[in-house]
Amino acid sequence: MASTRERIHQTINHGKKTFPYSVYHVCIPDWMKKYPLHWHDEFEMIYIYKGQGMFSVNGFKNVCKEGDLIIVPPGSIHSIDQKQNDFVEYFNIIFSLSLLEENPESHCFRNYLSQLSENDCMKDLFLFSASPICKRLTPLICDLIAHRHAEYSGYEMMIKARLYEILFILFNENLNDKKSSPQNQREKENALRLKKILSYMKEHFAEKITIEEVSEITSLSESRFMTFFKNQTGTSFIKYLNDYRLEAAAEQLLQTRKAITQIALENGFENISYFVRAFKSKYNCTPHEYRKAGNE
């Protein structure tokens, strides 16, 4: 699993270098607490198998339940979290569009796949189970999930055939034909601005970060920046930054033998008493108790 610091802009390889395709099975909160805001260059489809969770894609949030499908085009900022105390079990299907066509000059890539490579390519990102398009896509998605461990002769051709069929349906029934609208342009600008903020946080979270300096990189006033970030993420920048720091600290507690004071300082907490209080508020135990429980 990618560390907290690696999750913002993922550049890890999914599948084989010669066959960039993977299916992941995830359960929140049993296997991980949440998957914070991040993006990657691959196309992703998320199928809800059981339960319900809170899903966010490009600033749009929805509670998704069993049978729902979430489309995550390349470059889309997305996150997955618990809905209160509920659990959610889902499958991620992640693949590079180069799997289907390596030549960017080909007819298929120029006319179809290139349009699917942009983060605003889809009209609807959340396809609910009762919708006609979801009912058409579900058997194809479930077929890919059922064959996720397959290695029989020719299975790669079956996977590519299913992916082509899925993209054919999405292209013809869910392509965004309003990409040039003012609203769509604003959404694209907001996504770029949020990526800039998250990338800056990733690089500097161990240092002192002020609202003033982060607002400067977004060309917004401090008050507009705070409103923008809250609208995009559902939380304040300070809380988001502290959660990010605490998650990074929690990983170090389990993966290293460093002193708790050193871990706190390395993750942007200058006041050790405040770090312990914040950690206990988030994880319901002290850093020492968290490390002890994780090593048992």
Description:
- By secondary structure, the protein is an alpha+beta fold.
- The protein folds into 3 domains: 4-173, Regulatory protein AraC (Jelly Rolls), CATH 2.60.120.280; 182-234; 239-294, Arc Repressor Mutant, subunit A (Orthogonal Bundle).
- The chain is built from 10 helices and 8 strands.
- Strands 1, 2, 3, 4, 5, 6, 7 and 8 form an 8-stranded antiparallel β-sheet that branches.
- A hairpin with a 2-residue loop joins strand 3 (43-57) and strand 4 (60-65).
- The longest helix is centred in the middle third of the chain and has 23 residues, at 182-204.
- The radius of gyration is 21 Å and the shape is globular.
- The protein starts with 20 loop residues before the first strand and ends with a helix.
- The model has no long low-confidence stretch (mean pLDDT 91).
- This is AraC-type DNA-binding protein.
- InterPro entries: AraC-bd (IPR003313), Homeodomain-like_sf (IPR009057), HTH-like (IPR037923), HTH_AraC (IPR018060), HTH_AraC-typ_CS (IPR018062), RmlC-like_jellyroll (IPR014710), Tscrpt_reg_AraC-type_HTH (IPR020449).
Provide key terms for this protein.
296 residues; alpha+beta; Jelly Rolls; Arc Repressor Mutant, subunit A; 3 domains; 8-stranded antiparallel beta sheet; 10 helices; 8 strands; HTH-like; transcription regulation; transcription; HTH_AraC-typ_CS
